[in-house]
Automatic annotation (TrEMBL):
Keywords: Membrane, Transmembrane, Transmembrane helix. The keyword Transmembrane helix applies. It comes from the Eukaryota. This is Major facilitator superfamily domain-containing protein. One of its GO terms (molecular function) is transmembrane transporter activity. It is a multi-pass membrane protein. SUPFAM superfamilies: MFS general substrate transporter. It comes from Cristinia sonorae.
Length: 431
C-alpha cells in the first residue's frame, strides 16, 4: 500500500511547475500559455489512458500494469531533464519538456485508477475506504511537497533535475506491489472482475437484469452525479495547483508564498482524510452520499469566496480558505471513489471514469483560465480575477446536482450479507 501511495504521488507531480511558472517563463523564454500546455497536454493524454487501465488490469494483472506505469514515470522525469541544457534551442527545450509530460501522463492514471480496485482486492469492509483515502491522499501529500520543493532550488533547471532524482528514488517500490492475497477479504474481492466495457453498457442500459454489471436507472443517475461532482471539484484543484503562481503573484505574493498556499490546501486535506476515512469504514458506513450533500455546498461557497479574497495583503484569509477547500475537497475524494464503486460494483472501471472527468475538467479550467487572464495594462497586470469568477460560478452551478443524489451502497450491503451468511455457516459447523 505504501508503495502504491508513493508511486501514485510522484507520478502525479503536476503542480511541480505551478509555483515556478513565472521563473520557467523567464529562464526558457516560454509564454505562460505555453507553460500551461504542459498541464493541459497531460490532462488530455490522461483521458484515453485512463480507459485503457482497467483493460490492462483485467488482461495483465496489477503487478505488470504497475511495471508499465513505473517505466513511463521514469522516462517522463528524465526526458524532461533532457530538455534543460542551455545549448538547446527554445523549441528543442519545449519539445523535450512536452514529451516528458506526455510520458508522465501515461504513468499517472495507472497508479491513480488502481487505488479503489487495490483496496477492494486486499482489504475488508472496515479498511476499504481508509486504504482508498491513503492512496489518493498520499498522492495529495506528495503534491503538497512538490508545491514547497519546486521553488526551493536556485534555478528551474535544477528543480527539474531533482524531479528526476525523486522519480528514480521511488521506482524500486513498484516491486513491492502484490497481485492479490491468497484469500479474498470480501465477497466482492472474490468475484470475477467486471470489464470497463460492461460498465459502459450498464450506463447505457444495455446490460440484462441478470448480469452482475446491471445498473438500475437510479444507480446510473447517481453515478453520473458523482462523476460530475468529482470532475468539477478535483479538476479545479488540479488546475489551481498548476496555476498558483499565476493567480497570486500579480497581487504581490512571492512564488514561495504561492507554493505554500497550494501546500496548505493539500496538507490540510491530508489531515482531514486521515481523521474521516476510518469513520466511514467503522461508524458512518452507510453515509457516503450524505457526506457529499453536506460538504459540496461548503466547498462551493469557499471557491466562490476566492473572487473577493484573492487580493493584496490578505495572506491569513487566503491560508484559511485554502485550508477549508483542502479539508472538504480531499475528504470527498475517497468518499466519491468508494461511492462510485458501490454504485457500479466495478471498482477500477468507475475509478477510471471519475479520474477521466477530473482531468477533462482540469484541462478545461486551465485553457479557459489562461484565456481569461487580464492584459499587461490591467490593474494589477496579468491578474486572474475573471478566471476566479469563472471557476466559482461553474463549481456552484454544477454542485447543485448533489441534491438529487441517493447513493445506495449496494456493494457494501451485499458484502455484509455474504459475511453474515459465512459467519452463520461457520457457527453451525462449530456446533
Amino acid at each position: 500500500m505504501v508503495a502504491l501511495m508513493l508511486l501514485a504521488g510522484v507520478s502525479g507531480m503536476v503542480p511541480w511547475f505551478g509555483p515556478i511558472a513565472n521563473d520557467l517563463s523567464d529562464e526558457f523564454g516560454f509564454s505562460l500559455n505555453q507553460i500551461n500546455w504542459f498541464s493541459i497536454t497531460l490532462n488530455f493524454v490522461y483521458l484515453p489512458v485512463s480507459i485503457l487501465v482497467p483493460i490492462f488490469l483485467k488482461k495483465y494483472g496489477t503487478r505488470v500494469t504497475c511495471y508499465i506505469g513505473a517505466v513511463f514515470m521514469l522516462l517522463g522525469a528524465w526526458v524532461r531533464y533532457a530538455g534543460t541544457p542551455h545549448s538547446l534551442s527554445k523549441r528543442g527545450a519545449y519539445a523535450l519538456l512536452m514529451l516528458g509530460q506526455i510520458f508522465g501522463a501515461i504513468a499517472q492514471p495507472i497508479f491513480q485508477v488502481l487505488g479503489p480496485k487495490y483496496s477492494e482486492d486486499w482489504f475488508n469492509l472496515k479498511e476499504r475506504t481508509t486504504v482508498t483515502m491513503l492512496v489518493s491522499v498520499g498522492q495529495s501529500t506528495i503534491r503538497a511537497i512538490a508545491q514547497i520543493l519546486s521553488p526551493a532550488f536556485s534555478t528551474t533547471r535544477i528543480s527539474i533535475l531533482y524531479l528526476g532524482v525523486i522519480s528514480t528514488a521511488v521506482l524500486p517500490f513498484v516491486f513491492l506491489i502484490g497481485e492479490k492475497p491468497p484469500t479474498p477479504p470480501t465477497y466482492s474481492a472474490s468475484m470475477h472482475p467486471l470489464s470497463f466495457f460492461s460498465l459502459a453498457r450498464a450506463m447505457l442500459g444495455r446490460e440484462p437484469a441478470a448480469s452482475p454489471a446491471h445498473m438500475t436507472v437510479r444507480e446510473r443517475v447517481d453515478f453520473a452525479i458523482v462523476a460530475l461532482e468529482f470532475g468539477v471539484l478535483v479538476g479545479v484543484i488540479t488546475a489551481f495547483s498548476f496555476l498558483t503562481a499565476q493567480f497570486f503573484e500579480p497581487y504581490g505574493y512571492s512564488e514561495d508564498t504561492a507554493g505554500l498556499f497550494g501546500a496548505t490546501l493539500l496538507l490540510v486535506g491530508l489531515v482531514a482524510g486521515f481523521i474521516t476515512s476510518p469513520l466511514y469504514d467503522r461508524i458512518l458506513t452507510h453515509h457516503l452520499a450524505l457526506t457529499c450533500k453536506i460538504l459540496c455546498p461548503i466547498v462551493s461557497a469557499t471557491w466562490l469566496s476566492l473572487i473577493w479574497a484573492v487580493r493584496s495583503n490578505n495572506t491569513i484569509a487566503l491560508y484559511v480558505l485554502m485550508g477549508i477547500i483542502g479539508g472538504t475537497s480531499i475528504t470527498l475524494l475517497p468518499v466519491a471513489l468508494e461511492l462510485a464503486a458501490e454504485l457500479t460494483r466495478n471498482a477500477d472501471g468507475s475509478s477510471a471514469v471519475l479520474w477521466l472527468t477530473a482531468n477533462f475538467f482540469g484541462a478545461l479550467y486551465i485553457l479557459i483560465n489562461g484565456a481569461l487572464r487580464a492584459g499587461a495594462d490591467a490593474n494589477p497586470p496579468l491578474n486572474m480575477h475573471r478566471a476566479l469568477i469563472f471557476q466559482g460560478t461553474v463549481i456552484c452551478v454544477c454542485t447543485v446536482s448533489v441534491v438529487f443524489l441517493t447513493g445506495k451502497q449496494v456493494r457494501r450491503e451485499r458484502d455484509e450479507l455474504k459475511a453474515k451468511e459465512s459467519e452463520g455457516i461457520s457457527a453451525s459447523g462449530s456446533a
